Amino acid sequence: ALPSGQPLATPGGFAREATALGYHPSGRMLAVGRWNGSVQIIALPSGEPRKMPDGHSQEVTSLAIGRRGRWLVSGSRDKTVKVWALPSGRLHKTLVGHTNHVTSVAIEPRESLVASGSWDNTVRLWSLPSGRLLRTLTGHKAWVNSLAIHPSGRWLLSASDDGTLRIWALPDGRLVATLVVTDAGQWVVFTPDGRFSNYPPAD
Questions:
Q1: Pairwise CA distance, residues 198 & 74, whole Å
Q2: Complete DSSP assignment for the chain
Q3: In this predicted structure, what is the pLDDT of residue 16?
Q4: Main-chain phi, psi angles of 11, to 5 degrees
Q5: Which residues of the chain have pLDDT under 70?
Q6: First vs last Cα of the chain: how many Å apart?
Q7: Nearest 5°: phi and psi at 136?
């Protein structure tokens, strides 16, 4: 619990080998992705777990929950993106198109668009709730490791092993800027006030 830092619950069993986490905006739910491709919802503060059916066939690499709390999105080494309805946990769509591991997923604040990044060097934009592929963003020369969407929903930031961060306009996917970093871009995040942080830092 915050600010004390004391644990509210320590889920056992299924929550072991967690590879990705997603926090619901209500504060009453935590999503957990696992090495074996399973996804579960943990009720807070009780810690009661609920395994969701129709998980991935390989490791879950990333999770994102929309700002309005209606959708949970998961990415996996099985090259797919899955969209789950909340709070029911029902599988809504499986998005297929990437040709290598999906490494990162992000949901636009209005929950009308999902972005996914992959080791196939691309970023893909998908429509919610239809799951239709809108655009494939190309330009990175190596794996896309991390994605972040600006709180306004106007920009998408991608970090890649090619040593660049790219800023894309949403929803059209137009490339706005390319920033050079000191090494392979490992992660990037927007703060609530619209600033971004990344590792390694941009020059």
A1: 22
A2: -TTTT--S----GGGTTEEEEEE-TTSSEEEEEETTS-EEEEETTT--EEEESS--SS-EEEEEE-TTSSEEEEEETTSEEEEEETTT--EEEEEE--SS-EEEEEE-TTSSEEEEEETTS-EEEEETTT--EEEEE---SS-EEEEEE-TTSSEEEEEETTSEEEEEETTT--EEEEEEBSS---EEEE-TTS-EEEESPB-
A3: 58
A4: -65, 140
A5: 1-16, 182-203
A6: 37
A7: -115, 120
* AA letter at 157: L
Q: What are phi and psi of 173, to 5 degrees?
A: 80, 15
The whole model's pTM is what? 0.84
Nearest to 34 by CA among 9, 15, 48, 53: 15
Please tell me the distance from the alpha carbon of residue 86 to that of residue 195, in angstroms, as a whole number. 29
Whole-angstrom Cα distance, residue 82 to residue 91? 7
190-202 confidence digits (pLDDT tens): 666 665 555 555 5
- The pLDDT of residue 2 is 47
Q: What is the pLDDT of residues 106-143, one digit of tens each?
A: 999 999 999 999 999 999 999 999 999 999 999 999 99
